[in-house]
Amino acid sequence: xxxxxxxxxxxxxxxxxxxxxxxxxxxxxxxxxxxxxxxxxxxxxxxxxxxxxxxxxxxxxxxxxxxxxxxxxxxxxxxxxxxxxxxxxxxxxxxxxxxxxxxxxxxxxxxxxxxxxxxxxxxx
Length: 124
Known about the structure:
Elements: E1 29-32, E2 35-39, H1 40-52, H2 55-62, H3 66-80, E3 85-88, E4 96-99, H4 101-119
Antiparallel strand pairs: 1-2, 3-4
Helix pairs in contact: 1-2, 1-4, 2-3
C-alpha cells in the first residue's frame, strides 16, 4: 500500500430533484434510556383523550381498540415512572379521564416538537 494515499474531502453536490412527487417522510418517538415512551401516534392518542375525556372515545376516533390504547398508555407510564392520565369518578358526564400534569406537559412538548419539525425548511 502506498504511503501516498490521499483522501478527498467530501464535497457538497447540488443535484436537482428529478422525481415528481417525491417526498421525504420521517418518524419520531421519545425514549428514556433507550426504552420507548411514546411516538407520534401516542401523541395523537393523548390529544384525543384530552379532547374527548375518554380513553374509549379517543381510541375509537383513532381506529384503535380500547385495550390497545389502555396498554399503550400504561406502558408509557411504566417507562416514565409517572402517571399520564387521571380518572374522574362519577356517573354520566362527570365520569371520564383527563391528562395529568405530566400528560399535559408531554403532549405539549411533543406537539411543539412536531410543529417545529414540520416547519423546518430542508436545504440541499
